[in-house]
Amino acid sequence: MGESYDALVAGAGTAGATAAYFMAREGLKVALIDMKPREQIGLKVCGDAIDVRHFDRVGIPHPRGQEIDGKFEGVKVFAPSERDYFVVEGEGYALNRHAFGQRLLKMAEQAGVEVLAQHHAFRPIVEGSRVVGVEVKDLKGRRIYELRAKVTVDATGVSAKLRTSLPSEWWVSYKPPHEDFYSAFREIIEVEEVPERERGYAVIYLNMDIAPGGYWWAFHKGGDLINLGIGVQWKEGNPNPKFAYNENLRPRYKIRRVIHSGGGIGPSRKPVPCMVWNGFMALGDAICAANPIHGGGIGPSMLSAKAAAETVLEALSADDPSMSGLWGYHKRYHELYGAKQAGLDVLRMYLQRLTNDDLNFIISSGVISGKDVYEIGTKGKLASEVVSKVTSGLKLLRRPSILRQLLKVKEYMDRAVELYANYPESPDDFERWLAEEQRLFDEYRSWLASL
After folding, report:
1. Is a pLDDT exceeding 90 seen at residue 391?
2. Helices (H), 213-338
3. Cα within 13 Å of Cα(56), Cβ side
4. Position 381 confidence tier, pLDDT thresholds 50, 70, 90
């Protein structure tokens, strides 16, 4: 084949398909490459939940018909005791992940995207300091050939296959540590009866004994269906999530049948520091575009796709797909989600150190409410009301150390959000910014270690 494109997108998940759609809609010649057969694109093991607001922010139609298995009134978060909880109000969708993925694929095709299903983009083509395309293996025809493009986009998911294959000295090839990811297992089950407290809600259960560094969930998908799963921090000594699921979750439900099951790895951290190079950019899970607290990645992946597509269109209209020409992607993404993500990463690192007793206290005392969590999730900062409660001495005599720690966490969250909101305008200032970012998080880790 050896064809040339304006943009090549490797990976037809929510990030890749959305980015391809936006670029092709504006007249670019785009190819979308995926290893799966066309009819299986969209199948993925995940929680299937997404806040309705993401669709308006991204600018694509809300899911409809078979794309929705159910709707959430909000999110319930239970303490380890399972006696106390708070509710984060806000409508969400329980997606039929496959049907929704197929709709995104159809949108891309109708916009003019060439879909290459059952093709593996296994290696970036590097010439000098520029990415000029990918080597592709036709999994059906068993042949290997090159495809070239002005911009190559890595949307290969958490493996970041193309990005992490680039020369190690390139900023964009950064590989996060394992502890910044979670391992998960989930099943979609039909039960005899959905527990009353889980009806119509996405329910999160915090328990550091069952799910260390993470949580387990029961997301009601409508009718008698539940997306039931567990995610644990990917860390030595933590349990295999499938074993933890079978031992702790399955016995809670009377299961009629299992509709689908599977496991995987997901990011739970701030975005990777650099997301572009000459002729290259990454998005979705390949840049760790997910909420560090609850791991939700569908919305952030589509936001990263929107930011990436807008940047590519701007760069190619100026005939400048260089690193400088693509650099604005960072600003766009951090304004949409990345800066908030950095603040939430600070909170994630703190929460992973807490015990069940700590979590029971925080939730039962009312130090943090559902309204506070909503504001934290919106801004990536601890809510002003939380600070007011703590500084006024609420329950201070019971757990003063926890309350003092929350004030310190707020300080670091604010600093992280500010740092990412002021991401450098050009590559010239990146190394200075990166050194500042590393100092901030090294300082924070030292403080956490002292607790």
Report:
1. no
2. 241-244, 298-317, 323-326, 328-333
3. 4
4. confident
List all residues 6 or more positions away from 204 whose beta carbon is below 8 Å from its beta carbon: 75, 76, 77, 78, 215, 216, 217, 294
Q: Helix (H, G, I), strand (E, B), or coil: what is residue 147?
A: strand
User: Which residue has 């509710």 as its token pair?
Assistant: 87
Instruction: State the greatest distance between any 2 C-alpha atoms of the chain, in Å, as a whole number.
Output: 72
Measured distance CA(439)–CA(444) in Å, rounded? 8
Question: What is the rounded CA–CA span in Å between residue 95 and residue 90?
Answer: 16
CB-based contact 409:434 (threshold 8 Å)? no
* Residue 281: φ, ψ to 5°: -155, 160
H-helix segments, 225-326 = 241-244, 298-317, 323-326
The SS3 call for residue 114 is strand
Residue pair 301/13 in contact by the 8 Å Cβ criterion: yes
Beta strands in 35-95 (DSSP E): 49-51, 68-78, 85-95
Give 303's DSSP letter: H
Q: How far apart are CA 34 and CA 297, in angstroms?
A: 19
CA 378, CA 190: separation in Å to the nearest integer? 33
Pairing type for strands 85-95 and 49-51 reads antiparallel
Please check whether residue 359 is in contact with residue 80, taking contact to mean a CB–CB distance below 8 angstroms: yes
The pLDDT of residue 365: 83
3-state secondary structure (DSSP) of residue 415 = helix
CA distance 265 to 209: 20
Q: Taking 50 as the threshold, does the pLDDT of residue 1 lie above it?
A: no
Do 140 and 36 touch, CB atoms closer than 8 A?
A: no
Using the predicted structure, report yes or no on whether residue 2 has a pLDDT greater than 70.
Answer: no
Bridge partners of 151?
7
Distance, in Å, from the CA atom of 18 to the CA atom of 148, rounded to the nearest integer, reads: 21
Mean pLDDT score, 383-395: 64
The length of the chain is: 451
Mean pLDDT score, 306-325: 98
Q: Which of 280, 215, 222, 178 is nearest to 71 (CA)?
A: 222
450 contacts: CB under 8 Å, gap ≥ 6: none
Q: What is the pLDDT of residues 98-139, one digit of tens each?
A: 999 999 999 999 999 999 999 999 999 999 999 999 999 999
H or E stretch covering 216: strand 215-222
How far CA 12 is from CA of 8, 137, 154, 245, in Å, comes to: 11, 16, 10, 29
Amino acid at 350: Y
How many other C-beta atoms can be found within 10 angstroms of the C-beta atom of residue 438? Answer: 11
Nearest CA-CA partner of 183 in 126, 229, 129: 229
